[in-house]
Write a structure and sequence with these properties.
Layout: E1 25-33, E2 38-47, E3 52-54, E4 70-73, E5 80-87, E6 92-96, E7 101-106, E8 109-118, E9 125-132, E10 134-135, E11 144-151, E12 156-158, H1 168-176, H2 198-212, H3 220-231, H4 235-255, H5 258-266, H6 270-275, H7 278-295, H8 305-318, H9 320-334, H10 336-351, H11 356-380, H12 393-421, H13 428-446, H14 463-479, E13 518-519, H15 522-532, E14 536-541, H16 546-556, H17 559-567, E15 570-575, E16 588-591, E17 597-600, H18 603-615, E18 622-626, H19 643-659
Parallel strand pairs: 13-15, 14-15
Antiparallel strand pairs: 1-2, 2-8, 3-7, 3-10, 4-9, 5-8, 6-7, 9-11, 11-12, 14-18, 16-17
Helix pairs in contact: 2-10, 2-11, 3-4, 3-11, 4-9, 4-11, 5-11, 7-10, 7-12, 8-9, 10-11, 12-13, 13-14
Length: 660
């Protein structure tokens, strides 16, 4: 089922004080003379692997979106004119799971071209400027501006600025960005632990255990083990064959994932392209509906009987190791009507998450191991067979419950298609409402109020049915606040399943994170911290920062976290991509250590530079705990989806502040 795939495979990256300044893009420019007065300017961007530069033509939207690339030139009526727009290549166009919209971007290398026509025959130089931001699958860096001096004789240099133009006022404002953070040596950055596929393996294993409880698999356990232990010439031989049989079951399910590795190697983007394809998501929706109806008992999904009969005859005629393999393959085919929907869920979920083919292999491996273990264990300890419960109506009840789960998960795929095409008919509250209706129906079934074709009459409700019914009803009650326009609508346990909070039937007003009192100026926040005698948390964030929103909705919303942020800290949220212009008197030129001059013209320019200068880091989200004397209170940190870890980090900072 889909809940195999609750694992969110976003890699964690802890903030480092000294080694996290990222520079994943390099720009070069060139100029060619096309005719007497027409020149072609070219700008080539080379990106590190995994980083994206976005198109100039990104659609305008009020939602979180990537920053479009923008070129500007100093063309005037006296110097030169632009011939047409800046041309960009085709690029990659697809639905982006992070921004939850269609985007166009470039990777590896991209060349932009702009034709100009000289109006001033004596013109020797043209100036160009590119505004851009780059993202990978986890974060976006603050927007930057790169300036070029383009000499029309063919020389092109990046404009590092005229050092003589740096005034005393510029120097004063540049120095004001340095806050002289103390205590960096006390809080070294922590080593980032790489995430493994262990969790997805365990979730696949749990799915396999559930598959064991279906009518197609459970009765096969005693029959198959007895066959091996009784038909062999000696017990040792029978035991070896049963263990070999279990191994082949495991291997068969792992082998099923190999074709996806071939597809992934041919085109690393293919699995993600498949997962975001509208047609495929609708097909998955229909298939899951069919699976659900099948589990309800209205018809059976089976593979052609000739396949299993042919394999069974080969297993009997060949014998030996190969015969045992064909017996394992026969089991996989015969049990398909019960395992197929579960495997379909695993496949659909793997294709729509970041793990791709490797995640699918680990999930399949866990699933196959769970199916295989009983055959091996009962062959080693045949007396355990006596402890197995007898087959009966409870097996069909398990199958029907799986049908309800399949029905609920079907709407996740329909929701994906709705988000991609912006149809707007499956808003968050409607999606949750459908799940509530399915949950109520499942509760009524478990309490015997609804029956399906293969259900036996219920004389007395078992303890397991009562327990599961109460749990299902509790889940329905948990969903109810999701229908409201309140703070309780954020169903954190289901994060990633329903449509995002902003995709709502209610109109959402723009406001600060969770309604917290957040200063957007460091200077103002510092004054408040001194006046209220409180520690500071600097939140380096961005309007287009998806992981920033995830932290706010999934971590900050936790009662313990929001209580600390609201009552114990002065929160300063600095938006590094804010393009609001500074007042003329607040603009200045900043001299970078490499000799380049950065024009601080916007609020985002100021805070992005502030972050880089003081913390040698330019990624978001990024969090810093300080006192009003600029002493670090804890190590810096970044995207931390673990609530307990983040809360512990906040508490340690507060404890260190109180010690002072």
């Amino acid at each position: 089922m889909r809940y195999f795939l609750l694992l969110v495979t976003t890699l964690l990256f802890s903030g480092s004080l000294f080694s996290q300044t990222l520079d994943p893009i390099k720009w070069k420019a060139n100029v060619e003379k096309e005719s007497e007065d027409v020149y072609v300017l070219t700008f080539k961007a080379t990106l590190d692997k995994g980083w994206h530069l976005y198109s100039q033509n990104e659609a305008e939207t009020d939602e979180i979106a990537p920053t479009p690339t923008e070129f500007s030139f100093n063309a005037t009526a006296e110097t030169y004119q632009l011939l047409g727009e800046t041309i960009e290549p085709k690029g990659i166009e697809k639905y982006d799971n992070i921004f939850e919209m269609d985007v166009k971007y470039f990777e590896d290398e991209v060349v932009f071209t702009q034709k100009i026509k000289l109006l001033d025959k004596n013109l020797k130089k043209a100036k160009a400027e590119v505004f851009f931001s780059v993202c990978d699958d986890e974060r976006c860096l603050a927007p930057e501006v790169v300036e070029f001096d383009v000499s029309l004789n063919g020389e092109v240099t990046e404009n590092k600025g005229d050092l003589a133009s740096i005034t005393a006022d510029d120097k004063s404002k540049s120095e004001a960005l340095h806050i002289e953070v103390k205590g960096k040596d006390k809080f070294p950055s922590e080593k980032v632990e790489e995430k493994s596929y262990f969790n997805i393996f365990i979730l696949g294993f749990l799915g396999g255990l559930i598959a064991l409880l279906t009518p197609c698999v459970f009765p096969m356990i005693p029959l198959t083990v007895s066959f091996f232990t009784k038909s062999a010439k000696d017990r040792k031989k029978g035991t070896v064959n049963a263990i070999l049989y279990a191994f082949f079951i495991f291997a068969i399910y792992v082998l099923l994932s190999l074709p996806f590795h071939i597809l992934d190697s041919l085109d690393p983007e293919i699995l993600n392209n498949i997962s975001t394809n509208v047609t495929l998501n609708i097909i998955f929706f229909v298939v899951f509906i069919v699976f659900a109806i099948s589990f309800f008992g209205y018809f059976e999904i089976t593979l052609p009987a000739s396949w299993s009969n042919s394999l069974d005859s080969k297993a009997n005629s060949i014998g030996g190791v190969i015969g045992v393999f064909f017996m394992a393959l026969t089991l996989a085919l015969v049990s398909f009507s019960c395992t197929g929907p579960i495997l379909g869920s695993l496949l659909g979920g793997s294709l729509s998450s970041d793990g791709g083919a490797m995640q699918l292999s680990f999930g399949m491996g866990g699933f196959g191991l769970a199916l295989a273990l009983p055959f091996g264990l009962f062959a080693l300890f045949p007396n355990w067979l006596n402890s197995l419960p007898k087959s009966g109506g409870w097996l069909n009840a398990v199958k029907v419950v799986l049908g309800f789960i399949e029905l609920a998960l079907a709407f996740k795929f329909l929701s994906n298609a709705d988000l991609v095409e912006h149809w707007g008919f499956l808003k968050r509250e409607i999606f949750i409402g459908i799940w509530i209706v399915i949950g109520i129906a499942m509760t009524l079934y478990l309490f015997g109020k609804i029956r399906f074709p293969h259900d036996s009459p219920i004389k007395k409700l078992s303890t397991s049915r009562k327990t599961l019914g109460v749990l299902t009803l509790a889940f329905v009650i948990y969903l109810l606040p999701g229908l409201t326009n309140t703070a309780y609508a954020n169903l954190k346990l289901l994060s990633g399943f329903p449509p995002p909070l902003f995709y709502s039937i209610y109109e959402k007003e723009a406001h600060g994170p969770l309604g917290l009192n957040a200063y957007t100026s460091f200077e103002e926040g510092l004054k408040a911290a001194k006046a209220q005698n409180k520690p500071i948390m600097i939140d380096f964030t961005g309007w287009a920062c998806v992981n920033c929103r995830k932290m706010e909705e999934q971590v900050w919303s936790y009662p313990g976290v929001i209580k600390l942020l609201k009552n114990e800290y002065i929160l300063i949220s600095l938006y590094v991509d804010d393009r609001q212009k500074l007042n003329d008197q607040d603009k200045f030129k900043f001299l970078k250590p490499d000799g380049r001059i950065k024009n601080i013209n916007t609020i985002g320019d100021k805070w992005a530079t502030f972050q880089t200068v003081n913390f040698q880091n330019n990624s978001q989200p990024y969090y810093v705990l300080l006192d009003s004397d600029m002493n670090l209170l804890n190590r810096t940190t970044a995207y931390t989806p673990d609530v307990n870890e983040y809360l512990k980090w906040l508490k340690k900072g507060l404890k260190n502040y109180n010690k002072k």
